[in-house]
Amino acid sequence: MAIERVYKCDLDGEFVSKADVRRVGVRIIEDRPDNADWLEVGPCCYNRPIGDLMDKAAEQRRLAEHGE
Fold this sequence. Notes:
Elements: E1 6-8, E2 15-17, E3 22-26, E4 37-41, H1 50-66
Antiparallel strand pairs: 1-2, 3-4
């Protein structure tokens, strides 16, 4: 039995195979490049506006920093 790794798209929650995932780093100007918020995006969301990624990254950062 083979095990296939799947990832969950951070924007819409759909499960996709590892080969189809794009990992995108989102950061604000004051951040260092290594301090980016990483989002894993599946093919279902490849064509979504960059603003959606920025909003999701800001939401994740707010949760990590303030626990809201």
